[in-house]
Amino acid sequence: MQIKYIIVVLIFLFIGNASSNEETVTWNELRKLTWSDFKAAPDSNSGAVALTASGITFGYSLKTSGKRIIDFKYSVEAHFYPDKSWYISEKGDSYILGHEQLHFDITELYVRKFRQQLERLVANQNIKQQMNQIHIAINEALDKTQKTYDAQTKHSINVDAQKYWETYIAEELAKLDTYKSQ
Asked: InterPro entries, from UniProt (predicted)?
């Protein structure tokens, strides 16, 4: 019996493409972002005080026997990209940093949703397509949620909306605690 492994890695970013040597911070509930994590030059034309570049790293391997796929493994992580993230130091405070942290937490929420959906899959000949379809759908939902978060909070200006989102995301993360990043 011939067993073969195929490994595929896909990366999604809100801002640009990641290079293999690029510094990343993997989401961890014990490690919160600090302003020193934001290393890119600020974009003075954007009107924003800060920008968080985060995304989902997804990879999988397939175990085959002959031409049949008999098993699969996957890896899904939430990453923050320091070299694509920035802030204006004169305007960045702990409140703004909390808004940016929540962007990263939203990315983690969708990583958990992704893992939950992948866990339900059963190895079959269409597993690659199924995983890729889930990956696309998760990234679309993540992007929509990030944009909704910024729109509703007016990029953190609406304090009541910001508090709502902090509570909402904390509750959603707790519901999917089984799938959290380690």
From this structure: DUF922
Q: Determine if the pTM surpasses 0.70.
A: yes
Burial of 119 (0-12, 13-18, 19+ CB in 10 A): exposed
With beta carbons less than 8 A apart as the criterion, state whether 83 and 40 touch.
yes
Strand 86-87 and strand 50-51: the pairing is antiparallel
pLDDT tens digits, the chain, 182 residues: what are they?
443 333 333 333 433 344 457 899 999 999 999 999 999 999 988 888 999 999 999 999 999 999 999 999 999 999 999 999 999 999 999 999 999 999 999 999 999 999 999 999 999 999 999 999 999 999 999 999 999 999 999 999 999 999 999 999 999 999 999 999 98
Are the C-beta atoms of residues 45 and 113 closer than 8 Å to each other? no
